[in-house]
Amino acid sequence: MVADRRELLGFAGVGLLAYAVDLGLFTCLRGPAGLGPLTAKTLSFVAGCSVAYAGNALGTYRHLGRPRGLRPYAVFFAVNAAGAAVQLLCLAVSHYGLGLTSQRADTVSGAGIGMLLGTILRFWGTRTLVFRSTAGSGDRPGSWNTTNGGRVGSWTG
């Protein structure tokens, strides 16, 4: 199943909001709150994941129905942790494996290539493992409708 433009834009918009929450909270926890870098990043990462989950559940993938229980959030969190691991792996390979140790190389590998690959993994995992559609949902409100080619009831269009 190929993603449509609305789904991609919704996912990207939610991701940008989650990134802003992560960065803003990390900055506040690191600065005025005086927490250590790992504690601050852990808390900001969990907050960012929570915002992304809520945004995707209530927005981008709303047409699939509300997920129930703790399992979907746990899977979403695991997918996001895997995406973060991909970013770290790209940085580690570039910095330690290839010997590209400049700040520019670290930025390109971690925040550029790593972010791109991590986002692709997050998108795939989110739509495949967390917010998957159920077969035979028919044309109920909020479902894919093959006659009009779009989602009904989605905030993204």
From TrEMBL:
Q: Could you say which protein family the record assigns here? A: Belongs to the GtrA family.
Q: What is its main location?
A: membrane
Protein name, UniProt field = GtrA family protein
Keywords, comma-separated and alphabetical: Membrane, Transmembrane, Transmembrane helix
User: What region holds the GtrA/DPMS transmembrane domain?
Assistant: 11-131
The organism of origin for this protein = Streptomyces tendae
Membrane-crossing ranges are 44-61, 73-96, 108-125
The UniProt entry lists membrane topology as: Multi-pass membrane protein
| Subcellular location, record wording | Membrane
Task: Show the segment(s) annotated as Disordered.
Answer: 135-157
Its GO CC terms are:
plasma membrane
GO BP terms: namely: polysaccharide biosynthetic process
InterPro entries assigned to the protein according to its UniProt record, in alphabetical order? GtrA_CellWall_Glycosyl, GtrA_DPMS_TM
Keyword Membrane listed? The answer is yes
Q: Does the keyword DNA damage apply?
A: no
Q: Name one Pfam family in it.
A: GtrA_DPMS_TM
